[in-house]
Specification:
74% helix; disulfide bond; metal ion binding; Tim10-like; metal-binding
């Protein structure tokens, strides 16, 4: 059963870059709603934001579960040993880089679909 902690605070440029890409995607998605009344635009923006928060928490929980399962073998101590800590760090970096790359790729594909040739 996954837990829902607070969203992680960006500590490296990688999560900040992903957040910037998501913000740019928001603007492009909302740009397609020009014909809607302002109230509907606001409702749609709030729905998109809620979906993004849910997806971010889901991704974070998957990251925690996967890296913990892969890297932590025993519970000898309260804290991680150096090998476990290093493994978790590498796992998290790899997971975030992969997620960012997939997000960028989807954005590229979305741009290609949105731009008529």
């Amino acid at each position: 059963l996954p837990f829902l902690p607070e969203a992680p605070k960006p500590s490296s440029p990688l999560p900040r870059a992903a957040a910037a890409a998501a913000a740019a995607m928001d603007k492009s998605m909302l740009g397609d709603l020009d014909g809607l009344p302002e109230e509907d635009k606001m409702r749609m923006a709030a729905m998109i934001e809620q979906l993004q928060i849910r997806d971010s928490l889901r991704m974070y929980n998957n990251l925690v579960e996967r890296c913990f399962t892969d890297c932590v073998d025993t519970f000898r101590r309260k804290t991680l040993d150096k090998q476990e800590e290093s493994c978790v760090r590498r796992c998290a970096e790899k997971f975030l880089k992969h997620s960012m790359r997939v997000g960028m790729r989807f954005a590229e594909l979305n741009q290609g679909v949105a731009t008529p040739d």
